[in-house]
């Protein structure tokens, strides 16, 4: 990209010219959140994709989010800034292995978190996000056993909250598993007035310690509505941008990871996306997300079920 290209005005021009919409997850860098037409959590991104009138959706997030948008909108062109923006949680659940796992539990209803590949969604009865998981699990008849995947932390949290009979796949997100309990406890001692808030992908000891547990949008809402003025935030650091924007008078402390030298809670996949890549993707309409039609139709059913229940 020549230095003289003004990325912000070029992105705005291309968006208008191509009737494109930019949708960004809360974990994107601030610059991308600032130019996005819509910023949200995984559920909101799927809901927004399902109802947009744009011809092109540029999904600034990780690949499964673009794939979900394409599954919902086969006639639209779905672009992502970088095809390498994967997800360690989705990768922890290969479809072939999940297929074999599922075979062992023929009487179970298969509930999967949206952080999966289209192939795993195609093996599922219903998809959930961290925003709607409790409600969806409670809507399943009480005597129906559940197979949940791929996140073991979210799965165990849901099991304790709903009291349901659940078999859980052993997957996890490397970002949410890295937080240090010792360092968080020390931080809390230094800041006794701070509330610890955590995403349910975090490990159990941290969830036990947390004052509030929720999806990215639930955490944001909590910080806005709470009377408290200080928060230790145990999730990916990108969400702090919206928290600070909404409550500039409050203090937000990123929860420290175990590796003291790292000092950050970035998802390196989410952070692969840059403004320059957004510009290039819009300009060249590449990389494009494509999903085989037979697979798409199979993956669509459990996503539509989720959206019906969540609407
Ligand atoms: P949300 O569903 O809360 O947006 O989380 C998505 C995600 O990737 C968490 O790591
Ligand atoms: Fe996947 Fe974890 Fe990154 Fe979320 S934070 S996109 S679960 S790797």
UniProtKB/TrEMBL annotation:
Functional pathway: Cofactor biosynthesis; NAD(+) biosynthesis; quinolinate from iminoaspartate: step 1/1
Keyword S-adenosyl-L-methionine applies: no
Gene Ontology annotations of biological process type: 'de novo' NAD+ biosynthetic process from L-aspartate
InterPro entries referenced in this protein's UniProt entry, alphabetically: NadA, NadA_sf, Quinolinate_synth_type2
Binding residues for [4Fe-4S] cluster: 87, 173, 267
GO CC annotation terms, alphabetical: cytosol
Catalysed reactions, semicolon-separated: iminosuccinate + dihydroxyacetone phosphate = quinolinate + phosphate + 2 H2O + H(+)
Record field: transmembrane: none
Subcellular location(s) per record: Cytoplasm
Keywords assigned by UniProt, alphabetized: 4Fe-4S, Cytoplasm, Iron, Iron-sulfur, Metal-binding, Pyridine nucleotide biosynthesis, Transferase
GO molecular function, one term: 4 iron, 4 sulfur cluster binding
One Pfam family named in its UniProt record: NadA
Residues binding iminosuccinate: 25, 42, 113-115, 130, 199-201, 216
Keyword Metal-binding: yes
Cofactors required: [4Fe-4S] cluster
Cofactor binding note: Binds 1 [4Fe-4S] cluster per subunit.
UniProt EC number: 2.5.1.72
Annotated family: Belongs to the quinolinate synthase family. Type 2 subfamily.
HAMAP family according to UniProt: NadA_type2
Function of the molecule: Catalyzes the condensation of iminoaspartate with dihydroxyacetone phosphate to form quinolinate.
Name this polypeptide is given: Quinolinate synthase
Organism: Xiashengella succiniciproducens
Name of the coding gene: nadA
